[in-house]
Specification:
The chain is an alpha+beta fold. The chain is about 60% helix and about 10% strand. The protein is built from 16 helices and five strands.
Length: about 375
Amino acid sequence: MTNSTDNIRSSFSLQAWRRLQRNKGAMAGLCLITCAILVSMAAYWIAPDSTPYANRMVLEISGQRPGFHITMLAIQKERPVAKGGFFQRLLYGKEAALTYVPIRAFRFEGNDMVVQKYADEETTIPERYSLATVWYGHDQPLKEPLQSIQQKIIQERILTKTYWLGTDRFGRDILSRLLIGTRVSLSVGCIAVLISLSIGVLLGAVAGYFRGWVDDLVMWLINVIWSIPTLLLVFAITLALGKGFWQVFIAVGLTMWVGVARIIRGQVLSIRELQFTEAARALGYGHTRIIVKHILPNILGPVMVVAAGNFATAIVVEAGLSFLGVGVQPPQPSWGLMIKENYNFIITHNPLLALAPGVAIMLMVLAFNLLGNGLRDAMDVKRG
């Protein structure tokens, strides 16, 4: 009986996957989600600014348009920077060992370097740096011939930087913060879905299986939670837990389980009356075994659909919280926080600073909605 049931489930899963593959919208959403996951994993390796949180500030070039390029003088920092390992950089980025100064021109005068520091499109400020400060990070006798140091500075410390999506009001690279912000959105969605599924599946399954006063109690709790506006409930949980990265995960997850519980309860109510469930009870199986091994595997389809929908909802809620200032806190990049920091540019000279994270949110939510709709159709046994 067990082998036969497993074969039926395997056959159904294969048919569902084939139906999903025929859904172009769902596959497009799945491809976009896969790309976002890969980008979030390798964000610090592919981002132009690989410093922690992509937080390198160059205030002189704040609010620049996409495609802006400028010559930079890279000056060695006086304090040595510890070299992190592969996983350190993968997870947290690499602290910058150089300070970047935007310049328009430069020349050498003996042991000094005179630059025309960029202030704005029409203004430059002359500044003088010793070659030792540029190369070693502090004044000291040169350890190499003067011409050799000058040549190395020209080759290694005079750089041309291109900001493909422009810079924000602090002079930070928008593209880098957008890429690293992908981690926040996917992490919030993943943890929130896990929390909501854990609570919702447990309470929904218990309510639907045992019915009676247990069902009444769970439904009363669901109705109470559902009667509270979602944003107000998230605010209350966030204020109770405090502002921060992990607090957002918990706050969003604790507000999304009610929808899961209602759906699971309805599914369990219908499945508990089927013959295989009655047979399991007749064989003397315990309630826990019946729920875990016989009922829950048969409602994985609706669970996957609601998980995709909740993932999209979590991304939007996190962006809203960060925009309102109670979500992810600076300097950590979040798409909602990026909109908050740059929305004033929408009505001025550079609307893309706020539109770029807004488009990223839209595409990610659209991808999960398309995948959710595809899963719903693929899991529908009435469809061929």
